[in-house]
User: What shape does this take?
Amino acid sequence: MGRMTRIADWWKKVQLPFKKWRVVVSVEAADEIPPLLPEYGAAVVRSAGRAKWLAFDCPCGKGHRIMLNLDPSRRPVWRLVNDSPLTVSPSVDDQGLGRSCHFFIERGRVLWVRTRTRTHR
Assistant: This one.
């Protein structure tokens, strides 16, 4: 990997203060989630006034969508702490097809978890 590619990758990860993750749309069913979400945008599925799912495109940039269960009657479950800026608890750990994306979303920022045995992106 060349120096310019590393710099470009680093620059994409830099999140300026005005670019914070946030919920941009609320829908009533998962099949109503828009196929294209804006950069740093998430969709929440609400049914009967309760949040059921949170969907967003993974910040790693590989093009996969993350769907987090927000319904406490199902496991595993995440908690939507804040819509804007977005805070989700606990961390997101998405593994599959040669990728390992493990991160926190706090106050609209992505905080990557680094491990010895695997790397994200």
Notes: Residues 44 and 64 are 17 Å apart (CA to CA). Residues 19-112 form one domain. The first helix runs from residue 3 to 13.
